[in-house]
Every structure is written in structure tokens, then in C-alpha cells.
Amino acid sequence: MLKTDTTLRRNFITVAVFTSILIIIGMIGFILIEGWSPIDALYMTFISFSTVGFKEVAELSLAGRLFTMFIIVLGMMVIAMLSASVTSLFVRNELLSKRKRQKMKKEIAKLEGHTILCGAGDTGTTVIEEFIRAKKQLVVIENNQELVDELEIDYPEVYFLNGDATKDEALHEANIEKAGGLITTLSIDADNLFVVVSAKSINPNMIIISRSVDSHTENKLYKAGASYVISPNIVEGMRMAAVMLRPTVVSFLEVMMRSDEFSYRMEEITIPKGAKITGKTLKDAEIPQKTGLIVIAVKRATDSQMLFNPSSSTIFKENDKIIVLGDPEKTDKLTALLSQ
Hints:
The chain has three domains: 2-100, Helix Hairpins (Orthogonal Bundle), CATH 1.10.287; 111-230, Rossmann fold, CATH 3.40.50; 264-339, Alpha-Beta Plaits. Helices cover 56% and strands 14% of the residues. The chain has helices at residues 2-34, 38-49, 62-109, 122-134, 145-154, 168-173, 189-202, 218-224, 232-245, 247-258, 282-285, 287-291, 328-339; strands at residues 115-118, 138-142, 159-162, 181-184, 207-211, 228-230, 265-270, 294-299, 306-308, 321-326. The longest helix has 48 residues, at 62-109.
């Protein structure tokens, strides 16, 4: 975008310089040849190179007519130069934009386990910022092209597609077949329902999170295949009550989850098949000692039971999820440890 603006500015400056030179040549020529006043010479120069066809200021001599023809030819060259610059600029921008879209589609086709976000409004923008902080792959489908153009500038790390998320074509373009999850934050519940139904039918194993403006739609979204349904009204009410009842706790969580200066985050990591800590206790696994992470909870894969503040004798099992608190570097250490 910056390169385009610079090129456009340079082209207009070039045309402006040539136009100024042409005007000066025309004025001097008409003054010397016809003996006209500066204002008459300026007027004649303008109507000549612009080829508008108004009547001459006065009867032209033979030399004046030849000079006028010279000014008209130069004027046509300047106008042609301006037209060519603008046309080539738009054509180049269109080609660059098309090439960029094609490159992005190829990159999206290579993604695996990424998340698809449907809708980039206020809620969607918050989701985008959180995924950027977590350094996770995200593909956004947004129907408003102007908004897509703005977001591409603000968030170059994210893939943006202009399309209707309720249509299967847009979901396929976002490589939903290989996606690990989908979040739909559209403003109309019926649209969210369409997205959930389509996504579930294409990729039944993915995690689907849907927004529900009307709390009465929540059950329908769950029946359609949503893994989680978030109602803004309920969340806002719970948050307001929490701020009033436990202001210090809420303040701490806000700093931890949203502050760029505070590097600690809560993360969940799945114990993969063949991990060395499978069958070991928390004490024997030595996760805090080897990584510096704080183990907050363990979610069992068998029955989804959540073990908060697990004891040192808690035994890890395959596909269990470990909830930890720490910075990204320490989380990466645990991921590497589990993959050994």
C-alpha cells in the first residue's frame, strides 16, 4: 500500500512538473510572438494544451499558429502520460492484488489444525488479537470487503478471505477439511446456525464455538453441532457481578490475559500418544522443575473430569489435557518434552 501511494505521488509530481514547464513555455512564446499580456498568454496556453476549443484571444499570426500547434502536441503528450500512469497503476494494483490472493489461497490450502473465524466485527477483532498473542494460525472469513482491506493492514499475520461464511464455498476456501476449530461471531443467530450446520457436516471432528445473541437459540446451536455456545448477555452479566464481588481477582485475570507486558498465560496441552510422562505421577514427571510451569489442573480424556490443583500423586494418561500457567517459552519446553 505504501509503495502504491509513493508511485502514484511520483507520477503526479512528474506530470505536474511537465505541465508547469509547458505553461511557462506557452506564456513566454505567446508574449514574444504575439506581444500579448501575461494573462492573455496564460489563457491561450491553457485552452491550447487542454484542446477545449475556445476562441483565440486575438487573430494569430503564422508563427503564432505554428507555436499553438506545438503547444497542443505537447499538451496531448502530457495528458497521455498522465492517463498512461494512472491506467498502469490501476492495472498493476489489480494484478498484484490478484497474485496476493492466489498466494494466500495456496498457503491456506497447506494449513492443518488451524482455526476459522467467521465474522470480523468487534467480537471477531478481539478473537483475532488473542490468536496473534498466542501465535496460532487463524483464517478469517468476512463479507465486508472494505473491512477486510483494513484488517489486512492492521493484522498482516492473519489470513483474510472476503466471502459469505454461511456458504459452503467460503468454508472450503478456508480449508475447513483440515481445520482444528471454528468460531462464528456473526451478528444474526440464524447465520451462526447455518455456519454450525455446514461446518459440522463437512468436518464433524472439529471444535465449533458459536455466538448466541438470543439465549433461546443456545439449545438449537448445540443440537446443530456446536461444541460451545457463548451468549454475550450472560457473559457480560457474570463479568459485572464478578467485578463487584471479586474485583482483585478479576483485575489480576485481566492483566494476565490481556496485558502485553505480562508474559504469563494459561495454556492447555494434550499429552500425545507415546509421551514419556504417560503413566507417571506429577511428582515423577517433574514438569515444574524441567519447564518452570505451574500445573493448575488436569482434564481427563476418558470422562472429561477436571482435577484442579492436582496432587503430586496424580497419574498422567494419554490424551489428558494439562492446564498450565507460564510464559510461551516455558510452554514450548513442555510441548517439546511431551514429543520426545
